[in-house]
Amino acid sequence: MPKTWIFDLDDTLHNASKHIFPVMNRAMTQYIMDELEMDEHAAHQLRQHYWRIYGATLKGLMRHHGIDAHHFLKETHAFIDLPNMVVQVKQLKHMLKSLNGRKCVFTNAPRDYAIRVLEILNIADCFALVFSVESTQFHAKPSARGFAMLLRKLNVRAADCVMLEDSLPALMTAKRLGMRTVWVSKKVQKPNYVDYRINAVLALTHLKL
Questions:
Q1: CATH 3.40.140.10 fits 4-15+86-206, yes or no
Q2: I want to staple 120 with a disulfide (CB 3.0 to 4.6 A). Which of 79, 86, 145, 191 is the partner?
Q3: Is pLDDT at 1 greater than 70 in this prediction?
Q4: Closest Cα partner for 162 from 94, 92, 102?
Q5: Residues forming beta bridges with residue 180, ordered by sequence position
Q6: For the residues 193-203, what does the mean pLDDT come to?
Q7: 20-76 architecture in CATH?
Q8: Within its chain, how far is the Cα of 16 from the centroid?
Q9: How do strand 102-106 and strand 129-131 relate by DSSP bridges?
Q10: Please, are residues 20 and 10 in contact by the beta-carbon 8 Å criterion?
Q11: What does the pLDDT look like over 55-74, one tens digit per residue?
Q12: Three-state secondary structure along 33-59?
């Protein structure tokens, strides 16, 4: 049976840290300041606290403050200048097309943003499925519930999947479920639940999977 390739989006398929994450993080901090009437320092601390505990700021805001998920995502991902913020990756489409098997995107980002980024990168047509945070009913990675929903949607066993991610907690869940794991990171030391480490997604062509 052909493999199913599961790709994270931000900082896996493209470099979101350069232009997108700084703006997104400021927008999330501002959102918390406005909605929870906090000063900037307290809002920043709370955002990071929830990200560390839950792997996603939104999950903490929903669980502890009753924040409306759709409103939060709309307000924090409204990038007017997104085409100029996405860092293009040469040969990315060629590399994706060369992989045998189904390919999907599994992201904690909202669907509209994910689709926009994939279209700007000109790789939207490479993927059979875009599984966004809405698709998981807001059980964002690294929650095993979101992974289980994805596997049901794909109608595939975890053992037949390869997961590419920059986030170690998400890869830990993927490995626990039985997937093969590829960490996209420039860090040298890899934990034992990571099967392979590559500096950038294009290096996937050199792996024998």
A1: no
A2: 86
A3: no
A4: 102
A5: 162
A6: 95
A7: Orthogonal Bundle (1.10)
A8: 10
A9: parallel
A10: yes
A11: 889 999 999 999 999 999 99
A12: HHHHCCCHHHHHHHHHHHHHHHCCHHH
